[in-house]
Amino acid sequence: MRRANHPATEDVALPEVMGALSDPVRIGLVRVLADGSERGWGALRAPVAKSTLSHHLRVLRDAGVTRTRQEGTRCFVRLRREDLDTRFPGLIEAVLAAADADGVGNGVGLMPGAT
């Protein structure tokens, strides 16, 4: 895997964040990661092919929504909640509340046995 690029907090731009959050699968991933835990990519379950899941994770990372960490051959992802709250106070909370109310991203979760 190539080294992941993460925008600095001050470089995270609202249009890119909103674009990244414009897909139900990506919103579902944000909902799963909203508990603050770092998750291995293999622990994530979504109704898409693995290559498509990888694409969605890259879009979130490139927009500054998530941070990816590589450890050997494994990759881990977490929500950049603090950075996003610094740049756009209340945005993630509002997105999560609306997604929860409307069931957006309900098909995304964790593999059985993943914590």
Automatic annotation (TrEMBL):
Q: Do the record's keywords include Ribosomal protein?
A: no
Segments passing through the bilayer: none
Quote the SMART domains the UniProt record gives. Answer: HTH_ARSR
Domain of life (superkingdom): Bacteria
Per the database record, which ranges form the HTH arsR-type domain?
6-99
Pfam families membership: HTH_20 (PF12840)
Name the keywords, alphabetized: DNA-binding, Transcription, Transcription regulation
InterPro entries registered for this protein in UniProt: ArsR-like_HTH, HTH_ArsR_DNA-bd_dom, HTH_MetalResp_TranReg, WH-like_DNA-bd_sf, WH_DNA-bd_sf
Q: By its UniProt entry, which PANTHER family does this protein fall under?
A: TRANSCRIPTIONAL REGULATOR, ARSR FAMILY, TRANSCRIPTIONAL REGULATORY PROTEIN
For this entry, the protein name equals: Helix-turn-helix domain-containing protein
Origin organism is Salinactinospora qingdaonensis
